[in-house]
Design a protein that fits this description.
Number of helices of chain B: 13
Largest sheet of chain A: 6 strands, mixed
Helix content of chain B: over 70%
Oligomer: heterodimer
Shape of chain B: globular
Number of strands of chain A: 22
Distance between the termini of chain B: 21 Å
Largest interface: A-B, 41 and 30 residues
Radius of gyration of chain A: 24 Å
Order of helices and strands of chain B: HHHHHEHHHHHEHHH
Largest sheet of chain B: 2 strands, antiparallel
Chain lengths: 508, 314
């Protein structure tokens, strides 16, 4: 436990602006080292340098006393540094087995027999709690949580000296996360050093031995995890941090006016009929374990998946519109934010302006389909300011923004369209606390203006803190609706598990 | 802004190329050279405009050369055998192009077949129809249509060239300054995200292929005008020249990125290279060798620029 495994001295890195400045860090053999900080603090860049994705500008890294300077991911891999990335690196058309084996294959000179491969895959899947998954499944068809566990599994069972985990639990339920944490603790006990990057501060404190806080590319503090609490960490991360803005949660003027009426809908993915009415000025949280049909419900509401039965109608100003595809949904004032920013929202390689101003019919900045560039830029500028997006200007490439700022841009799109029903799928996934609070406040503001929000989250506390009502889905069935006066976390959690009751829970 | 720099880079290469041939070949700047080059341009230009739009939306149209040939034979047939006026003949040709393009579009967008394969099929079918239309013969039309390709007196510019340039301007304008243009880029950059923004992605894929067909039809008219005859072999291999021009002009084969103005610069670069080399007395095989090299170098520079931008991102 004593020997230093990884030692970093005076590490610098900048991409046009400094991202990491004078980083000094030592990680011991078998140590789990937590790394926290707001988005844009430099956590991911730090991990990328160690994993060989990005080269450092300056400084010295030693691995078990030998200087380590990777020229690519392959060097890092051969030196025994393995990284489970935040943006998943799985190859979707390949099967689960192929994805897991991909990195191991070049390491063996002989051909691995199919049987052995399958056995190994099964045992790996078993260990991360995906025992029921068919190893031949195409990775692309899996949900985000499953893919995240797979990404983890892929990196974890290589004999590595240093393991970097970047937001490994962002898409996971509490149960899945605790399985993952057990594995990580086990690995550390056998001598692997782990760098654990996460926004889930409670997780970091529970799992890590030591925690380092980054702010604006500098280390603010490094301390034993036992000596700190969540509140203290937050203070270190951002000086002016205010805890959970509960005061903003006024009792909204709830009109009984229904704006969205869902009658007995079913889709291929949601075989049990779902009915509910959403009113103006309310926030509805959707709870459920991963794979319980949360995203599928929002997809159906926005017309992304065809209904096999029932109807969705939108009421506004006495009119009633049937929602049958994303086009009608958009035109009737509905907005949708997908759970995966990269594949469902962003236009990579395009500037902030284009990314922000895409979906609408660009009312106000276009007449007869002709764009007025100046008015368009002015409208975008205003939204950037309103949402306090950190960017170098509207021309900046969207890829250069941090995850939180990208999320703000995606939300800005719909604000511009004057939408009044917002469907947000995991709006705070992988986002720092500051931006999270901003998004909550934005949701409260929208409610105050009489808009309607339906959002999903893996964190029940978040749903309870923000929502007026909570729908619980369990195995693709709407099992219960809670209202603020009659809910408790245990009851909601119990409802999440209700349809699984016939099966033995596979965790613990 | 960035795309402006990029296009300027392409136009700078174009100017360098002109200066090089101006110095190397004695009479490169002569009126004859200019006329030769300009006269060859209209058909390839309009076809490249269509190709660029298809590439930006994330598809490809391999059938443009054959559709051009088929539409040229329709012009010949309509004017010579059916005794239609030149205007009616042109409408028929463009209509035939739209039909071919719409078939491509419906299959690729609504039946979700890969546009590469669908248009490869259309490449064969349209060529077959071209041969059937004229019974594999080149059909002489004559002066009535040739006036489209001949300079308007006193200007040195042919009506065909004027139409082709207008097409370039219109397409560039639509792409950069209109809502549908913005949506086309969005569909190419991330189809899933575009769909989730309520954009009708299938409609755009379909329409763009139909437009490409229409422009191939227009190209067929220009080709017939240039030759004064309907040649069923017209446009063979032109799909590859159009792709090359688009790519030289900075259009991505992966979709979501490209410029019609840049693609037009690509057309000019290829045309000037061909003519300049001919003037220098370079043999036909060597010309092809050099043209191929230029295409690869252009793509190399383009990908290097993108990678450099990525590195900055991190």
């Amino acid at each position: 436990m004593a020997a230093a495994r990884l030692s970093i001295q005076n590490l610098h890195k900048s991409f046009s602006v400094p991202v990491l400045t004078g980083i000094n860090l030592t990680v011991k053999r078998g140590e789990i080292h937590g790394l926290v900080g707001e988005n844009g603090a430099g956590k991911t860049t730090f991990g990328s340098i160690l994993a060989g994705f990005v080269s450092k500008d300056n400084g010295m890294i030693t691995l078990d006393g030998v200087e380590y300077e990777p020229s690519g991911p392959k060097d890092a891999f051969e030196a025994g540094i393995s990284c489970a990335a935040q943006e998943l690196s799985l190859i979707n058309p390949l099967s689960v087995t192929e994805n897991i084996a991909l990195r191991k294959l070049p390491h063996s000179c002989s051909v691995i027999s199919g049987q052995e491969l399958e056995q190994r895959t099964r045992s790996i899947l078993q260990r991360v709690g995906l025992g029921s998954l068919d190893p031949d499944t195409r990775t692309g068809t899996l949900g985000l949580a499953e893919r995240q566990l797979l990404e983890f599994a892929k990196s974890v069972f290589l004999d590595c000296r240093v393991l970097i985990l970047d937001e490994p639990t962002a898409a996971l339920t509490a149960q899945q996360a605790s399985v993952l944490h057990e594995i990580v603790t086990g690995l550390a006990a056998s001598g692997t050093s782990v760098i654990y990057i996460s926004h889930r501060l409670q997780d970091v404190l529970e799992v890590s031995d030591n925690v380092t806080v980054l702010r604006d590319g500098r280390i603010v503090t490094t301390a034993p995890a036992g000596s700190m609490g969540v509140a203290e960490l937050m203070e270190y991360m951002s000086g002016d941090f205010q805890t959970g803005n509960k005061t903003a949660r006024c009792a909204a003027a709830q009109t009984p006016e229904p704006v969205l009426e869902v009658e007995h809908i079913t889709t291929e993915e949601l075989p049990h009929e779902i009915s509910f009415t959403a009113r103006a000025g309310e926030i509805i949280g959707i709870a459920g374990l991963s794979g319980s049909g949360r995203s599928e419900l929002l997809n159906a509401l926005f017309g992304l998946t065809p209904l096999t039965g029932g109807a969705i109608s939108r009421h506004s100003a006495g009119e009633k519109v049937r929602i049958s595809n994303p086009g009608t949904a958009k035109r009737s004032g509905m907005a949708y934010l997908g759970e995966d920013r990269q594949s469902m929202g962003l236009y990579p390689g395009h500037p902030v302006l284009t990314n922000m101003m895409v979906p609408g019919d660009l009312q106000g900045v276009a007449s007869m389909s002709l764009l007025d560039n100046r008015r368009e830029a002015a409208a975008a500028e205003k939204l950037v300011e309103e949402l306090s997006v950190k960017c170098d200007g509207l021309d900046q490439d969207i890829d250069q923004l941090s995850g939180g700022n990208q999320q703000k841009i995606l939300i800005a799109r719909w604000l511009y369209c004057n939408s009044d029903i917002f469907l947000f799928d995991e709006p705070t996934r992988g986002i720092d606390v500051g931006t999270k609070n901003m998004i909550y406040n934005l949701m409260f503001d929208l409610r105050h203006e009489g808009k309607t929000i339906l959002f999903t989250s893996s964190e029940i506390e978040e749903l309870m803190a923000v929502g007026d009502r909570i729908f619980v889905l369990s195995r693709r069935k709407l099992v219960e609706t809670f209202t603020a006066d009659n809910w408790s976390e245990t009851e909601i959690l119990a409802a999440c598990f209700r349809e699984f009751a016939t099966r033995t829970p596979h965790v613990h | 802004m960035r795309s402006l720099v990029k296009e300027n880079f392409i136009f700078a290469s174009l100017i360098l190329l002109v200066i090089f041939f101006g110095l190397a070949a004695d009479n490169f700047f002569s009126l004859v050279t200019l006329r030769t080059i300009l006269n060859q341009l209209p058909a390839l230009t309009v076809v490249t405009v269509g190709m660029t739009l298809v590439l930006i939306v994330g598809g490809i149209d391999l059938s443009v050369g054959s559709v051009l040939g088929f539409c040229a034979t329709i012009v010949g047939m309509a004017m010579m055998n059916w005794d239609f006026s030149i205007v009616t003949a042109c409408f028929l040709a463009i209509g035939a192009g739209i039909i071919c393009g719409s078939v491509n579009g419906i299959l690729a967008a609504y039946l979700a077949l890969p546009s590469f394969i669908v248009t490869l099929g259309m490449l064969e079918m349209a060529r077959g129809m071209a041969y059937i239309t004229t019974d594999s013969q080149t059909m002489y039309i004559g002066a009535s249509i040739q006036k489209l390709a001949l300079p308007i007196s006193g200007t040195g510019v042919s009506p065909a060239l004027v139409i082709a340039l207008s097409t370039v301007f219109a397409a560039q304008f639509i792409l950069t300054r209109t809502v549908p243009g913005r949506h086309i880029v969005a569909v190419g950059a991330n189809t899933r995200a575009a769909r989730m923004s309520g954009i009708d992605t299938k409609l755009y894929r379909m329409v763009v292929l139909a437009v490409s067909g229409a422009l191939a039809g227009l190209g067929g008219i220009f080709n017939a005008a240039y030759l004064g005859a309907a040649d069923p072999n017209a446009g063979a291999g032109m799909e590859l020249a159009a792709i090359a021009a688009a790519v030289i002009g900075g259009t991505s084969l992966m979709g979501g990125r490209g410029s019609v103005a840049g693609a037009f610069a690509g057309v000019l670069i290829i045309a000037i290279l061909q003519n300049g080399l001919a003037q220098l007395g370079v043999s036909e095989p060597a010309k092809r060798l050099i043209t191929g090299g230029v295409i690869i170098i252009a793509v190399f520079i383009d990908s290097w620029r993108i990678r450099r931008d990525r590195m900055r991102t991190g």
